[in-house]
Specification:
By secondary structure, the chain is mostly helical. Helices cover 59% and strands 6% of the residues. The longest helix has 48 residues.
Length: 920
């Protein structure tokens, strides 16, 4: 069935008969197909055929000449085709016939020719191989004969040709067993030849630690042939020759260059002729005693050795080995590192001899290293080093000086290895503070005293002893802390013995303190306090202000109130133990002095006194090293010994001069690290280091202005001295700050002194105050033998002032203080009163605690104000005795101590008006 034409495609309008007929056949179904239809289709086809024939016949007749011509051509082509087929068949038979054909005969002839050609080629290859093998055999025989005869140079030359022959063997031979066997035998003979050459060289040149032997000719073993060193060295392979040169250079450098330039020795040359007729040249080294040696002889020995090497060995080596040039580097290094640098003197006394040696070394470089060995390439290292000899000497000397300084710094020093340094101190005695202490207020029966009277207090007033009347304001109520002048000696002694008991356990604390301290420097032995500065009492200027030299009569009313409050206490009064006999309290002004005289302003008094402080003995040694270094730099600069070697821009002696600064810098940097644990464990060591830096800085600043010190060095020394003083001051301040911080931390455990009515809280506060007291005493015991008087009092006073200021701030910050709490707080405050004894040098003179503890007066008033009446506070305020307190502090204290009342309101209003003006 024909493929149906899609209906959308265009249709040809004029279809031929066959197409039309086929379309009808395709459109006819099986049911509609019948005989009539088929007959119709056949008839149509016949008609179409007949019409087509007619059309063809018409077309032929219309163009009959052309048709005849084409018909003739067709017949001719057909005839030619038949003739060609016949000829092709004949040719195929002629070429391909198995017997007579051309192709089979040609192939047979070519096969025979190829076989003959292969036979010819095999014969030629065989001939070449056999000829080459015969040549190799003859050369192998000759090589074996030469090796047996000991003609090693000829054997080496023959090896070159034979090796070339084996390398150029015809292609089939390299893979054959016979060639492999020949190559194996050749390698064996070549190795044997090389071995004999090396053995002959080893007998010709012998380098040991003591002898250098050279034999110009050597007889080959197991033969009568003699070979010269030149023949042996020339015959060696490049690899073997390079290895021998390296070994020779290594041995010659180790046994001759390094040894002769670093050890005392003598060199001897000799020539011996052996029984075999072979001469032997020998260079022998004999060690010499070091005491009789001159260093310049080492260069002479080296010169002799190099001449021996050049005359007897170097010319035997091939020119391309460069053995001579390879010796220049170790020779230059040996002269510098083994001779010149180690022999560089440590002092100026050895410089002239060393300069002669250095001059000879420069000549040696020109003559041998550059001239004989042909090295250097224009770079004369020894000469360049010699031109900088001044710097080399100073740098080496600098290292030695710094090493000496390092040994001094690292040497452990204790208090026994120290000395007392003196310093002139200008003491500026300040005028007393505006607010006088309670013991200095002159109240000789003021008219307002009657206004304070209370019924029933006359008996109490009459019971007060005369000593109590002169006891100032009663700060130090215990006989163990005060010995008034009016008390008889027996009574004073008795009271002192009674009050020195162990009620507070101080003795146990001292024993525990000794156990904790560990070393004897912190013991509470009285000898530690027996004038550690070495000053007698008579010669010590009185640093006490002139305003506190005479006692004054105290206010009797406040004293009576104080005694009244004491009569209500339960148990014995609080004792504040001190390590020595109790000093008198801050003295009162004499009763004969009028109030006007007591309030007159007093001008500061300046006085100069000599004090001493502890300095380690190592500082003397270190400063002596600094002075020695300065003198050495000056001597070196003035001697002009390096004038011919000094380069432009360099100053002889400058490096050594600046070494003084390095010595001081080394001490500042190294000692705190080396002794860090000791400095952090005890205040005395850190303050001793502070003293060392201060003393060293003062001495360095003094010596820096000497005329013999160069300007550049002097400037650096002054700067270094300033840094030393700064370090000393910083360590002093850090140590004191550390103690202050410790006191702050301990007092923080009191939690602001709140709730002291509870016995447990009171015990905690009391323990904190006692711990601070012990720490301050321990601190004073440690630093008193170390510091000068003024620095000691400043350090202790600063710590005490910080502790008192903390107690003051905590107590004054309390918003409500009951009567019982005021009594407890007063007892806690009076524990610190015993610290006044630290500022007493002469029991007959008053203490000078106020000069170094600014808050002492304020703290002393606080313990009394806590138990005073409102009338007492008003009186003290009107007299100007409370100027150390701010108005806000006084108002808060009054509000905390007293209940709200008209009297308290009036008192507060009076306080709010400000402090009264000080009367002149």
């Amino acid at each position: 069935m024909a493929f149906p034409v899609p209906s959308h495609l265009p249709r040809k309008k004029n279809q031929d008969v066959s197409t039309k007929l086929l379309s009808e056949i395709s459109e006819t179904t099986f049911k509609s197909l019948s005989q009539e239809v088929a007959s119709k289709w056949v008839a149509e086809l016949d008609v179409a055929i007949r019409q087509t024939k007619e059309e063809i016949h018409k077309r032929i007749h219309s163009e009959l000449p052309a048709f005849n011509q084409q018909l003739s051509s067709s017949k001719y082509v057909q005839e030619r085709l038949q003739a060609l087929e016949t000829n092709v068949d004949k040719l195929s038979t002629t070429l391909s016939h198995p017997e007579t054909g051309l192709v089979p005969n040609l192939l047979s002839t070519l096969t025979q020719h190829a076989a003959l050609a292969q036979e010819l080629s095999d014969a030629e290859v065989m001939h070449q191989a056999m000829s080459h093998l015969a040549h190799c055999k003859r050369e192998m025989q000759s090589l074996a004969s030469l090796v047996e005869q000991g003609r090693l140079p000829d054997a080496i030359a023959l090896c070159v040709g034979l090796e070339r022959s084996l390398a150029t063997a015809p292609p089939p031979l390299p893979s054959t067993d016979v060639v492999r066997d020949v190559q194996r035998r050749f390698r064996a003979l070549k190795d044997r030849t090389e071995e004999q050459l090396n053995e002959a060289y080893s007998r010709g040149v012998g380098v040991t630690a003591n002898e250098f032997v050279i034999r110009p000719s050597v007889r080959v073993r197991a033969s009568d042939t003699e070979l010269t060193l030149s023949e042996i060295l020339t015959s060696l392979s490049p690899v073997s020759l390079t290895s021998l040169v390296n070994v020779l250079r290594r041995d010659f450098t180790a046994h001759y260059i390094d040894y002769l330039l670093s050890q005392p020795a003598s060199v001897e040359q000799s020539s011996v002729k052996q029984l075999t007729g072979i001469s032997e040249l020998k260079l022998t080294i004999f060690p010499s005693p070091p005491n009789t040696e001159k260093l310049i002889s080492r260069l002479e020995n080296m010169s002799t050795t190099l001449n021996f090497l050049n005359d007897n060995l170097l010319h035997h080596f091939p020119s391309d080995t460069k053995l001579a040039i390879s010796l220049t580097r170790p020779l230059t290094s040996g002269v510098l590192q083994k001779l010149l640098i180690p022999s560089l003197p440590s002092s100026a006394r050895g410089l002239p001899m060393f300069l002669d040696l250095m001059k000879r070394a420069v000549e040696f470089e020109d003559q041998y290293i550059v001239g004989l060995l042909g090295g250097g390439n224009g770079e004369k290292e020894i000469k360049a080093w010699a031109e900088g000899i001044a710097g080399h000497y100073e740098r080496k000397r600098r290292v030695e000086l710094l090493e000496r300084a390092r040994e001094i710094v690292l040497r452990d020093n204790d208090e026994t290895s120290s000395f007392k340094a003196e310093v002139n101190t200008v003491i500026q005695s300040p005028p007393p503070p505006t607010g006088l202490p309670v013991t200095q207020i002159d109240r000789t029966a003021p008219p307002e005293e009657e206004a304070w009277g209370f019924d029933g207090e006359e008996a109490t007033d009459n019971e007060v002893s005369p000593a109590a009347d002169e006891d100032g304001w009663g700060f130090d109520e215990d006989a163990s802390e005060e010995t008034p002048a009016a008390v008889e000696p027996e009574q004073t002694s008795k009271e002192t013995v009674e009050d020195s008991g162990d009620a507070w356990g101080w003795n146990d604390g001292d024993k525990e303190e000794e156990a904790v301290n560990g070393d004897g420097d912190d013991d509470t032995d009285s000898s530690a306090w027996d004038d550690p500065w070495g000053d007698s009492t008579e010669s010590t200027p009185d640093p006490t202000p002139a305003s506190s030299t005479e006692p004054a009569k105290a206010a009797s009313r406040l004293e009576r109130l104080s005694n009244k409050s004491k009569s209500t206490k339960i148990g014995p009064p609080i004792q504040s133990p001190i390590p020595v006999a109790p000093p008198p309290p801050t003295p009162a002004m004499p009763s004969s002095m009028s109030k006007k005289q007591a309030t007159e302003p007093i001008q500061p008094v300046s006085a100069t006194q000599t004090e001493s402080y502890l300095v380690s003995n190592g500082m003397k040694e270190l400063f002596g090293l600094v002075e020695e270094t300065i003198r050495e730099a000056a001597d070196l600069m003035s001697s002009g010994i390096f004038s011919s070697y000094a380069t432009s821009g360099s100053q002889v002696g400058g490096t050594i001069g600046l070494t003084t600064v390095s010595i001081l810098d080394l001490y500042r940097a190294l000692y705190p690290v080396h002794a860090g644990a000791k400095l952090s464990n005890a205040a005395k060591w850190s303050l001793l280091f502070s003293n060392n830096c201060t003393w060293l800085g003062d001495e360095v600043a003094r010596v820096a202005h000497g005329s013999h010190v160069p300007k550049a060095t002097a400037t650096k020394l002054v700067e270094s001295a300033g840094r030393l003083k700064e370090v000393g001051e910083l360590w002093y301040e850090d140590t004191v700050d550390g103690e202050c911080q410790k006191a702050e931390e301990v007092l923080a455990e009191a939690q602001g002194f709140t709730g002291t009515t509870d016995q447990d809280r009171y015990d905690e506060c009391e323990a904190a105050v006692n711990q601070v007291l012990q720490n301050i005493r321990r601190f004073s015991q440690q630093i008193k033998p170390v510091l000068s008087k003024s620095r000691y009092y400043q350090a202790v006073g600063t710590v005490i002032d910080v502790a008192l200021s903390r107690i003051l701030s905590d107590v004054l910050a309390l918003s409500d203080i009951t009567a019982e709490e005021s009594q407890k707080l007063g007892e806690l405050c009076r524990i610190m009163n015993s610290l006044e004894g630290l500022f007493v040098e002469n029991p007959d003179l008053p203490s000078f605690v106020v000069d170094f503890v600014p808050s002492w007066f304020k703290f002393s008033y606080l313990s009394e104000l806590l138990e005073a009446s409102m009338v007492d506070i008003s009186y003290l305020f009107e007299e100007g005795a409370l100027v150390d307190f701010s108005i806000e502090e006084l108002v808060n204290l009054v509000r905390a101590l007293f209940a709200d009342s008209p009297l308290r309101t009036n008192t507060i209003n009076k306080l709010m008006q400000g402090h009264p003006p000080i009367q002149s």
